[in-house]
């Protein structure tokens, strides 16, 4: 067996979610998946493709009509300029995009710089290639990477080959303004590294317009995006990798070895999304923002410190000091006692300890139930704490 594979552990978030699903009636606020359905016109395009027998292999990088539509969409939405013939590959979701990009770039002994807390696949993907993740703890800087910290880490870690940058962020929901991105780019351009910019939540940005790092530093950026979050298409498994032609050509080699090509039916659905689904994300984004505001207000009322997320559909909050700070114990007790599933922050790495991640890709009814169950749990915890304190005082007196 390959040691780097044997060393990979099953994702804690998946194990916890499986436990939550095994409890009848549990309110599940763990899932990073839209609870909306794929827009009807996209589903109909896929059905038509099946009926028209469009069920054969395509070229590995993807149907060229699709890649043209992707290039136009990215240009219209974000001002990006990618040549669909040489700079775009359609992948089996962003997950495969990360995997193929890492495999194409990394060698044993290389390092990957990852702001933490972070989504859980990035570190294991680095390890799989014999590389090592280097984490930046962002918990003291509002969960953002600062130019000063980035400069120092790159200066002292010359083996870094990739800066894995995810924004809007899973799990924190933070994003970056154009000025903040430019400041980071000024640091990065001094180093011979790639930025792999995971922007899968780009269409779910609330407070300002999303700016792609592919526009800020195109010669060093490999952009990852797709339709899973923006168009409620997680199960279709569609992503794109975009970047400098010479790098994308190498990524496509890995992609071809891993998949031959992504499914033809998904490609026809994606073509419809990119051609005629420009406005599909808007009503979903508006609803997510309303849900964010409802959950945020409720958590604040219960004493949670919650920075307002300006993207994605997650709230990453500190457990109030008067309660147990072991986030794994807190989340497991909450699930056992109240049948409410929320992910421990430490599952997302350094800086996540003592935090919880709420997904508000859930109905308003689930959000209200979540807040009610959480309030009941906190009341029980407070009473248990007072009882324990009282018993301790009595025993000390005797």
Report on the structure:
45% of the residues lie in helices and 14% in strands. With 398 residues, it is an alpha/beta fold. It has two domains: 3-37 and 281-397, Aspartate Aminotransferase, domain 1 (Alpha-Beta Complex); 40-276, Aspartate Aminotransferase, domain 2 (3-Layer(aba) Sandwich). Strands 2-8-7-6-5-3-4 form a seven-stranded mixed beta sheet, sandwiched between helices. Helix 6 links the parallel strand 3 and strand 4 (132-137). The relative contact order is 0.16. The model has no long low-confidence stretch (mean pLDDT 95).
Label this structure with key terms.
398 residues; Aspartate Aminotransferase, domain 1; Aspartate Aminotransferase, domain 2; 2 domains; seven-stranded mixed beta sheet; 14% strand; aminotransferase; PyrdxlP-dep_Trfase; transferase; Aspartate transaminase
DSSP strand content: 5-15%
Q: What is the CATH H-level superfamily of the largest domain?
A: Type I PLP-dependent aspartate aminotransferase-like (Major domain)
> What's the structural domain tally?
2
- Helix/strand-derived category reads alpha/beta
Mean pLDDT: 95
Total strand segments: 12
CATH architecture of the largest domain: 3-Layer(aba) Sandwich
Taking pLDDT < 50 over at least 5 consecutive residues as the criterion, the unreliable ranges are: none
Instruction: Report how far the terminal alpha carbons are from each other.
Output: 61 Å
The 3D shape can be described as globular
Relative helix content: 40-55%
The helix-strand sequence is HHEHHEHEHEHEHEHEEHHHEHEEEH
């Amino acid at each position: 067996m390959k040691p780097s594979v044997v060393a990979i552990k099953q994702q804690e978030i998946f194990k916890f979610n499986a436990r939550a699903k095994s409890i009848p009636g549990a309110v599940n606020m763990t899932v990073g998946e839209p609870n909306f359905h794929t827009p009807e016109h996209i589903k109909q395009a896929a059905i038509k493709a099946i009926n028209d027998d469009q069920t054969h292999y395509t070229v590995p990088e993807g149907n060229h009509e699709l890649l043209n539509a992707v290039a136009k969409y990215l240009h219209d939405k974000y001002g990006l300029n990618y040549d669909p013939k040489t700079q775009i590959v359609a992948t089996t979701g962003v997950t495969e995009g990360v995997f193929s990009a890492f495999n194409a770039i990394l060698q044993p002994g290389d390092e990957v710089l990852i702001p933490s807390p972070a989504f859980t696949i990035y570190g294991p993907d680095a390890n799989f290639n014999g590389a090592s993740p280097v984490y930046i703890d962002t918990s003291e800087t509002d969960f953002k990477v600062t130019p000063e910290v980035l400069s120092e880490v790159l200066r002292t870690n010359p083996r870094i080959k990739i800066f894995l940058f995810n924004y809007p962020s899973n799990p924190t929901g933070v994003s970056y303004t154009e000025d903040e991105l430019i400041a980071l780019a000024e640091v990065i351009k001094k180093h011979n590294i790639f930025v792999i910019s995971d922007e899968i939540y780009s269409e779910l940005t609330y407070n300002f317009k999303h700016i792609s790092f592919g526009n800020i530093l195109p010669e060093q950026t490999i952009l990852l995006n797709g339709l899973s979050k923006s168009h409620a298409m997680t199960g279709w498994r569609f992503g794109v990798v975009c970047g400098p032609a010479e790098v994308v050509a190498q990524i496509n080699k890995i992609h071809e070895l891993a998949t031959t090509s992504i499914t033809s039916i998904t490609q026809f659905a994606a073509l419809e999304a990119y051609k005629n689904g420009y406005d599909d994300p808007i009503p979903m984004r508006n609803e997510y923002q309303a849900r964010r505001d409802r959950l945020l207000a409720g958590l604040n009322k219960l004493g949670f410190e919650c920075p307002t997320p300006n993207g994605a559909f997650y709230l990453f909050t500190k457990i109030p000091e008067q309660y147990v700070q072991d986030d794994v114990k807190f989340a497991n007790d909450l699930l056992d006692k109240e049948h409410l599933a929320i992910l421990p922050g430490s599952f997302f790495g350094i800086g996540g300890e003592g935090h919880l991640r709420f997904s508000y890709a859930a109905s308003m009814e689930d959000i209200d139930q979540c807040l009610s169950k959480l309030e009941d749990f906190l009341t029980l915890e407070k009473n248990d704490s007072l009882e324990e304190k009282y018993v301790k005082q009595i025993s000390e007196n005797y």
